S-adenosyl-L-methionine-dependent methyltransferase
Amino acid sequence: MSLTTLCLPPSSSLPPIRTLLVAPTAVITSALHNLQTLYCPLRLPTTFAKARVAELAQVDSGYASRDEDEDAVDAEDALVTLRADEFERAYAVRWLTSLIGRAEELELEDEDDRERIVGDAAFILSSFSDSTAEDADESLTRDFSFPTPKNGTIDIQLNDAPLSGTDHTDVGLQSWGASIIFSELMCKEPARFGLNAFPEDATIIELGAGTGLVSLTLGKLLPTLADSKVEILATDYHPTVLENLQTNIATNFPRFAEPPVKTSMLDWSLPPPALESSAHMLFAADVVYAPEHAVWLRDCAAHLLLLNGIFWLIVTVRKVGKFEGIPDTAEAAFLVEEQLPQKDGKKLKIVEKMELEKKRGIGRGDEYGYMLFKIMWV
Ligand SMILES: C[S@@+](CC[C@H](N)C(=O)[O-])C[C@H]1O[C@@H](n2cnc3c(N)ncnc32)[C@H](O)[C@@H]1O
């Protein structure tokens, strides 16, 4: 495999459908993986792109004459150009549509493979009609209305800012399915998440807040549940994302001299000493999308979380292409007992795990569903 394998145009790399009818499953799977790599809307941070390039360079000839950073940037640039090519997109859509249409004719040994192939093709296909793919250049106002148990609603308005196109780390300018699904659930069943039982002056911290949907929802929901004053700190490491988040706070709390949601810069790999053991509750939605994220988040949570605190982590399950296996790293980070963070004789562990289904019309095409983890000191 070479670096250029990542960037081959669909029109010259996808096998004709008629040859696939008798092809081994691996050939079809590989073609689908390549399409997913190309058209998956969630862009990876440069660190992961670099790791990927290094991995490919090792498999290659060993003529690693170019700097890895340059290779990573070149590979990403080539992908961006190819992704925008209308002819190639139309070709990929036709290929996926005929693959699904002729799925019954594929000579496969295992029926599960047929189901998986159709599912993967349909997910990639649906990403072509997602807002990120086509509307990434335009700012979008999104309105959410989440029903509460008392027949009310929590209404949030968000500005989803355009992605820069040059910065591969500004994914937090747009709202992701995980935060929508989770915000809806919190409003529906607040007691299930302990949202009605905060002590006075409690602190909530959201990690990788992006547009801030989870924090803003909490900021409006909590006062409807109890009188206690809770401070909500929506954090992210990206300056432009934080700026957009501040706009969203102002939009949702226009008459507040002191809005209940504040922002702060926080990098999971280097959480500030001043916030040590400060959080009664932590939230993080769709934040595990590179191999190093899960361990950073685990250790960051250990630093921030009070001994009786709860960390709600919602991981987006993406099964194909470059994200394959990455959602599993969340659970894996808590598997080896000796590696678990410790505090006052307790260890930080996953105490509950829930599968949440993807909902029609919510989230990108490559999202299969969500895993919600309840993490505590035990
Ligand atoms: C896919 S977005 C999810 C945003 C939001 N939670 C949502 O669900 O819409 C991932 C977020 O994590 C942030 N992020 C990525 N790496 C980070 C790090 N090392 N420290 C803090 N935030 C980070 C990004 O800036 C982005 O806002």
